[in-house]
């Protein structure tokens, strides 16, 4: 019941699949290192390359988020200005394919750049509070008749017998197990690795999203970004990327994150203040479910006619690609089962 599973359930439901059960060890509201979704930022800043399937996933998701941001304020999504500063020249960052998708994309004038910054760009895009959005997705699933069941599976085959509505096994299982795809029996994908990301959530207002590439005191694997979550969700300061299952907050990393955030967005604190001016709500650690070859969206058939559609390995883009990845998974489900109205599905 992460963003991948919940979104896939909704997309299957919209297609007409009637009997769907989401089986999960963790549900919205839970906090666990094994459950990536609640720990994300979240913003919509595509990292996909032009002309790839991943670009298509991001485009599909933009359309869905646009509708949610305008029609469903309770979903925890708003549109916010994102200002990106660059301390060094980096031409590849000047040719974003999503220029025409996001709103009011433009390069900053020299007069708008802070000292030491070489160039910058700004546009408007989505900022999502994952804690609100996950609950919203679950409520939307429930209101559409999708069932939920708690279970900690040792093997993917167990999912077939956990279907809620009848004693018959499910016709198909969709595997959206995120980082635990590396451990789940029958899947055990050793190309899925945990990329630890550390964030600081503060009460201070940033008035938008900011990032600074090449900021001072930024060791490899650390970044500088700031985003103001909707509906009083606080301001997220990030971030980091390190290959490890380590669950601990590293306070040296946290201190550097806070210092860099103030460099990129001085209005976070009063003039003259440093990180002591930040009102910290909490520090957090989450794991991005990174898969070497990118997400696995694939149909697999195990002996005994057990059909599985995999949809995991969303890395650091599981929210912004979620609706597109779910649509790709739907195509695989449709390939496996040609009569949607008769299908029993499980996630
Ligand atoms: C610090 C940080 C910042 C991020 N920022 C962004 C961002 O700005 N934008 C963005 O798009 N993405 C961002 N991400 C990435 C995003 O969080 C992930 O890609 C996404 O949450 C993956 O979701 P998922 O549903 O695939 O996995 P998960 O959220 O981990 O969900 C997996 C589900 O499967 C269940 N499950 C697994 N194994 C079993 C089992 N054996 N039995 C039963 N249930 C099982 C779990 O209980 C859980 O419910 C960020 C991540 C981090 C850590």
From TrEMBL:
<dbReference type="GO" id="GO:0019478">
    <property type="term" value="P:D-amino acid catabolic process"/>
</dbReference>
<feature type="binding site">
    <location>
        <position position="225"/>
    </location>
    <ligand>
        <name>D-dopa</name>
    </ligand>
</feature>
<keyword id="KW-0560">Oxidoreductase</keyword>
<feature type="domain" description="FAD dependent oxidoreductase">
    <location>
        <begin position="1"/>
        <end position="327"/>
    </location>
</feature>
<dbReference type="Pfam" id="PF01266">
    <property type="entry name" value="DAO"/>
</dbReference>
<comment type="similarity">
    <text>Belongs to the DAMOX/DASOX family.</text>
</comment>
<protein>
    <recommendedName>
        <fullName>FAD dependent oxidoreductase domain-containing protein</fullName>
    </recommendedName>
</protein>
<dbReference type="GO" id="GO:0003884">
    <property type="term" value="F:D-amino-acid oxidase activity"/>
</dbReference>
<dbReference type="InterPro" id="IPR023209">
    <property type="entry name" value="DAO"/>
</dbReference>
<keyword id="KW-0274">FAD</keyword>
<feature type="binding site">
    <location>
        <position position="177"/>
    </location>
    <ligand>
        <name>FAD</name>
    </ligand>
</feature>
<feature type="binding site">
    <location>
        <position position="316"/>
    </location>
    <ligand>
        <name>D-dopa</name>
    </ligand>
</feature>
<dbReference type="GO" id="GO:0071949">
    <property type="term" value="F:FAD binding"/>
</dbReference>
<dbReference type="InterPro" id="IPR006076">
    <property type="entry name" value="FAD-dep_OxRdtase"/>
</dbReference>
<dbReference type="InterPro" id="IPR006181">
    <property type="entry name" value="D-amino_acid_oxidase_CS"/>
</dbReference>
<keyword id="KW-0285">Flavoprotein</keyword>
<feature type="binding site">
    <location>
        <position position="288"/>
    </location>
    <ligand>
        <name>D-dopa</name>
    </ligand>
</feature>
<dbReference type="GO" id="GO:0005737">
    <property type="term" value="C:cytoplasm"/>
</dbReference>
């Amino acid at each position: 019941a992460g963003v991948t599973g919940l979104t896939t359930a909704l997309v299957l439901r919209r297609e007409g699949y009637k009997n769907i059960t989401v089986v999960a060890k963790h549900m919205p509201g839970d906090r666990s290192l094994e459950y990536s979704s609640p720990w994300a930022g979240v913003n919509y800043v595509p990292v996909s390359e032009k002309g790839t399937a991943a670009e298509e996933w991001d485009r599909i998701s933009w359309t869905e988020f646009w509708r949610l941001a305008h029609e469903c304020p309770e979903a925890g999504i708003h549109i916010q200005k994102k200002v990106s500063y660059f301390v060094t020249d980096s031409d590849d960052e000047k040719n974003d394919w999503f220029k025409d998708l996001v709103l009011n994309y433009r390069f900053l004038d020299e007069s708008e750049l802070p000292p030491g910054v070489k160039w910058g760009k700004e546009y408007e895009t989505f900022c999502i509070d994952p804690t609100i959005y996950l609950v919203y997705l679950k409520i939307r699933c429930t209101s559409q008749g999708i069932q939920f069941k708690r279970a900690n599976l040792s093997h993917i085959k167990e999912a077939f017998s956990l279907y809620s509505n009848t004693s018959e096994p499910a016709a198909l299982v969709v595997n959206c197990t995120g980082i635990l795809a590396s451990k789940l029996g029958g899947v055990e994908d050793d190309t899925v690795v945990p990329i630890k990301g550390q964030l600081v959530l503060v009460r201070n207002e940033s008035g938008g999203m900011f990032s600074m590439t090449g900021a001072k005191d930024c060791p490899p694997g650390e970044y500088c970004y700031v985003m103001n979550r909707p509906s009083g969700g606080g301001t997220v300061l990030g971030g980091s990327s390190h290959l490890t299952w380590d669950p601990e907050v590293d306070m040296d990393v946290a201190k550097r994150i806070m210092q860099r955030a103030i460099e990129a967005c001085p209005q976070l604190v009063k003039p003259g203040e440093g990180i002591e001016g930040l009102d910290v709500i909490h520090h957090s650690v989450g794991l991005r479910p990174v898969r070497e070859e990118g997400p696995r969206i694939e149909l697999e058939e195990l002996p005994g006619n057990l059909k599985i559609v995999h949809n995991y390995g969303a890395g650091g883009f599981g929210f912004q690609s979620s609706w597109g990845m779910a649509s790709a998974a739907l195509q695989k489900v449709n390939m496996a089962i040609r009569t949607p109205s008769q299908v029993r599905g499980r996630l």
